[in-house]
Amino acid sequence: MNARCLCLWLTLAPVWAAAQDAPAPRPITLAAFVEGTLKGNPEAQAQRWNVTSAEAQLSINRLMPDPTLTTGVSSRELYGPSRPGSPTQVMVGLAWTLETGGKRPARVAVANEGADKARADLETFLGDLRLTAENAFADAVRAGQVLDRKRRTLEGFREVVRLDELRFKAGDIGGVELAQARVEAQRFEGEVFGAQADRTAALAALAQLLGDGRAPVTPAGGLDPAPVTVQADAVLARALLNRVDLVAARRAVHLAESQQRLARANRWVDLGLSVGVNHTPPVYATGAPYPGPAPMSNALSVTLSIPLPFSRRQRGELVQADAARAQARLEVEAMEQKTRADVVSAVAQYDAAAAQLGTFRHGILEDTDRVLDGILFSYRHGSASLLECIEAQRTSNEVYLAFFDAQANHAKALAALDRLSGSHLLLAP
Length: 429
Prior knowledge:
The strands form two sheets. The protein has a four-stranded antiparallel sheet, with no helix packed on it. A two-stranded parallel ribbon has the order 1-4. It has ten helices and six strands. It has a domain at about 25-75 and about 100-235 and about 245-305 and about 315-340: Up-down Bundle (Outer membrane efflux proteins (OEP)). The two termini are about 60 Å apart. The chain is α+β, with helices and mostly antiparallel strands.
């Protein structure tokens, strides 16, 4: 027996030690959690690099074509007997590409609009991430409330079992009633285990959103924002102005218009300007068979090259730019229509959630507790049956779970309104 106990201790000791070493969850408020998620989430950090890349493109598009330096031999006699004593001519030249049609300003405008579009896309991502964080926080709060309530209900069932054991020993009830009470307590114990797993998963989701799954956190405080009066027209006006994905769609229109202007500018041909100097050294030798003396010579050459734009007969780039601009405008119209529908739906869902939560603000929870206490008191004194006691426990548990659902739904409805209008009602003091 001692050997078996030793083996069991050796098996469970590492698990127990790991549990003791595990850090306790750190309490965190909703505002701190949302702020930490927006700053520390790895996906948010990855999205910020898109803005950095777009801003770097601005310095690239500001560049002008580099000049070209050329040097070499421009004339050297390869067959000496034909022209004995001929000097070797060398040349140095510089060539530029002269952009026409306003290409560089058009490129800079495209880079500026691209950076604005990247920032708008980042705000869209952060808006979605904020909504995800607020919903996850609401789910974690609800999971903790459900676990606490089910634990209290389980204690109530266990109290009934203890009473029935005493009454069974006293001969007041039979074994069937005692067995039924034990079955109900054991069945509800399984629900507590499920609630514990749900809460663990909810806390893990919070840690993942913060960007560090190894640092557990737990919601601090409850989740009971005050109901607000929502006017659909006011929400729609703010949504049409501030909705982040609608703002990003409008930035896409501006970017498409800039790209369209760049496509038109690119149809202008670029000129080539070249400036060079040919140097011929002096000739000093005289007499046959040498040529007469000749002084040093430096000759300036200027060349202007104009490409013949036969390739400009095709208009594919313009067609593509026009199509992208038309598509971006249609997407804005579609997003505006979707915003109107989303506002109607979000306001209706919030009104329903607020009304549902309001039903619990008129004493229903107090009445539920009063009924349960009365049934338990009657059961202890033999005035209520076991079935009435069990039903009262179940009803009380269901009412509280419905209340927790109403609180979470109300908070999520506020978060959805925040996502549409940018009001941050959920975080309002």
